[in-house]
Amino acid sequence: MNRRAIPPCLARAALDLAYGRPKPASPVFRPETIRRVLVIRRNGFGDMICTLPLLRSLAEARPDLRLDVLAGEKNAVLLDGLPFVQKVHVYGRGRGLMRNHYLNLPRVLAPIRAENYDLVIAVKAGFSPLLAVIARATRAPWRLGYVPSRGHPLDFCFNLKIELPVAREHQMDSCLRFLEPLKIAARSRDLSFVLPSETRRWAEEVEARHHLAGRPWVLIHVSSERHESRWIAAGFAHLASELRRRLGLEILLCGLSSDAKTIAAAVRLSHGAATAGETPPSIRHFAALAARARFLVCSDGGQMHVGAAMRIPVFALFSATDPRIWRAREVPFAFAQRGRSVADLSPIEVADQVIAWATTLPG
Fold first, then answer.
1. Mean pLDDT: which of 75-89, 160-174, 271-285 is highest?
2. Which of these, 34, 79, 151, 170, has the minimum number of CB atoms within 10 Å of its CB?
3. What are residue 288's phi and psi, to 5 degrees?
């Protein structure tokens, strides 16, 4: 069935029956009357990191706001300790039938409805029917989201709308567009998040254990949850060898525990160029380790944005993902891309590009 063929009047009636009607909004949106705001940002680490400048800008411009976030089970941890976020709701998937997003919504949204938010901001640089339904199902009187310029049967879920930009733009810039209806200028480009002291101690211990303290070293992250963004162990080994041979840099390989064999193989194939491999126990442990490196080499996923959040230079291996939208921001950055898969990149061309870029870095 073509969802776009559903008449909006039927869709509205169905959502009202399933989730109840939103509270009535005033005839005119007055930003100064807004006091309680919920920002919805699910999905991955990179999505949340690119949203942090929006949250900071909101908080700096309107310190009187109660600013809460509905985050995903994966990315909610990045909000821990941020003083401008008062409460974090977690969008958890249910079990059995409740794994269906739409059946699961009443359970997820019950505590959110109790907060009586004035405004819900559904953050995504594109129209998502699920996100539109979530926003309406909160029953908040004002709901802000992106809508397609050609319209959509569910665009009535938002009564404050931002059209998609014609030209491609970075995800962070798209997120900052949500400030416009509130008449707030972008005040922050800060992508950072809080690192607990235990993650910093762990990173210091790793650096000391591998005799890297006080020496310039590079962190190479070998993992990706997307098949098309994965590279071969021999490629990482060649890159480590060339960085050591041509620039005299120490190399530390890391990745997910599920890629321990890939890390071990890359260390072995590097013939001593990579001193060891690590599997950080969490994303914030990885961030604490990255913060101590000279620069980071990784694929085009969340770890790239973690490097940017830690304010270190990033070189990324891109699949078909558009660097104009997802590149690391606010730090020195370069990338290699060929075809639709990172596997299409040859070890020689990657090593040459990384080394040429590394020689341009300050310091």
1. 75-89
2. 151
3. -65, -35
- How long a stretch of residues is the chain? 363
Domain 3-182 sits in which CATH superfamily?
Glycogen Phosphorylase B; (3.40.50.2000)
Radius of gyration of the chain (CA): 22
CATH superfamily of 197-358: Glycogen Phosphorylase B; (3.40.50.2000)
Q: Is the dihedral of CA 329, 330, 331, 334 positive or negative?
A: positive
Write the pLDDT tens digit of every residue in 280-293.
999 999 999 999 99
Listed in sequence order, the residues at least 6 apart from 177 whose beta carbon sits closer than 8 Å to its beta carbon are 162, 165
Write b or e for each residue in 338-362: b if 16 or more Cβ atoms lie within 10 A of its Cβ, otherwise e. eeebbbebebeebbebbbebbeeee
Q: Flag whether pLDDT at 158 surpasses 50.
A: yes
How far apart, in whole angstroms, are the C-alpha atoms of residue 185 and residue 237? Answer: 46
* Domain parsing of the chain, residue ranges: 3-182, 197-358
pLDDT digits (tens, 9 = 90+) for 204-239: 999 999 999 999 999 999 999 999 999 999 999 999
Give the residue from 289, 286, 324 showing the smallest Cα distance to 303: 286
* Residue 87: burial class (beta carbons within 10 Å; 0-12, 13-18, 19+): middle
Q: For the segment 191-205, what is each residue's pLDDT rounded down to a tens digit?
A: 999 999 999 999 999
Task: Calculate helix-pair angle for 45-61, 302-309, nearest 10 degrees.
Answer: 40
Cβ burial, residue 83 (10 Å; 0-12/13-18/19+) = exposed
What is the model's pTM?
0.93
Q: How far apart are CA 160 and CA 145, in angstroms?
A: 7
- CA separation for the pair 303, 347 (Å, rounded): 20
